[in-house]
């Protein structure tokens, strides 16, 4: 209830919220709302920073208005968030938008001039206030992860609203903020490396207030957790692709359970020939030999061969050459026992020791 009363005051000054989360809405109005900016013109007139002078002066006026309005009505004692630190990070972020993140020299000079005016405004214009004053935080310039710190500070402000939306408004809202909380969990991992050490060097000053909002403490309790978990598992399975079938290696060889990639080549791959091609070539060569020997046998020892010999004689050179090759194959046997020896009419069965 206290938080709603505070935001009711914000809306009274700045109108109804444009965004769902408090930090988004406050920054939107901080950046775009022009109401009452003229009131702070004189305070920021000392800024000299060409060629972006007008934009820096406008930013200065927005900072002073924030100090007088938004920060003044904030809960400075019981809040888990720090709207003063938000103002510092938003100011620095806006300077990065104006000059570009690479122009660090101009950002440094502009931030220094705004903070000087900021301090003067606190001392003179806000002298009698009873609440703690919002002081400039110049160390942002030396923080390499200032964007993560800005995001973490915003999360401290937004947590309760985001958690309520994820819990009370189910379906799309739960899924939307489930992903939101997953990203914020990464922020906690980032800052744990600084905040878990004994010296806590580099740990944000507002970390302790927000430590209890770590998404790892409640993410699995959201109503859409089973659905989101299944989606992640399905996405991971789809990205991994179908599992290899039985007998098929990971490299896609259906004949081997072992990979045959570059790391473990077989003998045929070393010769540039695949096993299947080598097998086919061997089958063809064996067929040629069997066919040749069969043809020679038919030509020499069957009536069909005799007829062909009488009919075509020596004109059929391929058959003659083939028979000559067969003759040579068997001519090393003793002549008396050689079927192919011209004088071997007795057709004795010769024996040749193997």
TrEMBL record:
Domain of life: Eukaryota
InterPro entries: Plasmodium_Vir (IPR008780)
Annotated segments matching region Disordered: 233-272
Biased composition (Low complexity): 236-245
UniProt protein name: Vir protein, putative
